[in-house]
Amino acid sequence: MTVFIQDLRSKLFLNAASGWEAKGEAYDFRTPGFAIDFCMMRALREVRVIVNWGDPKQSMFLDVHGTNGESLRTAMSENLELRTRHEELRRELDVARAEGKEQKRKYPFRRKRVADEQGNG
């Protein structure tokens, strides 16, 4: 398996010196995760990670469009707020469930005798 980064506009590939060359000079990133991390660290936008298994029919293409830092910080902040709210709601639900159990305990379960109701007593 080989993993390359390709510029979507020029169709050139990233080489070992962080320049753009033809495919023959492309740097092999070895894993898709490393290639995607590299794109994010270098703020590469409009690139494609190509995972090549030797057969063009089985190649996988992962488009990496990147993002600016401000929108990422905003999204992370919103995510944190949502997680906090989720935990608050979970705690409220746990309290409501516990209260429901306590209400049920106030009224003991009484079995009905089936034989008595049917007159088979």
What is this structure's SSE topology?
Elements: E1 2-7, E2 13-14, E3 20-21, H1 32-41, E4 47-52, E5 60-64, H2 69-106, H3 114-118
Antiparallel strand pairs: 1-4, 2-3, 4-5
Describe the protein's architecture and organization.
The protein contains three helices and five strands; from the N terminus they run E-E-E-H-E-E-H-H. It has about 120 residues and is an alpha+beta fold. The protein has two domains: about 1-65, no CATH class; about 70-105. The radius of gyration is 30 Å and the shape is elongated. The mean pLDDT is about 85.
Summed up, what is this model?
With 121 residues, the protein is of the alpha+beta class. The protein has helices spanning 32-41, 69-106, 114-118; strands at residues 2-7, 13-14, 20-21, 47-52, 60-64.
Helical run tally: 3
Helix and strand composition category: alpha+beta
- Succession of helices and strands: EEEHEEHH
Let me know the number of strands.
Answer: 5
Shape: elongated
Give helix % range. 40-55%
Integer average pLDDT: 84
Annotation keywords:
121 residues, three-stranded antiparallel β-sheet, two-stranded antiparallel ribbon, 3 helices
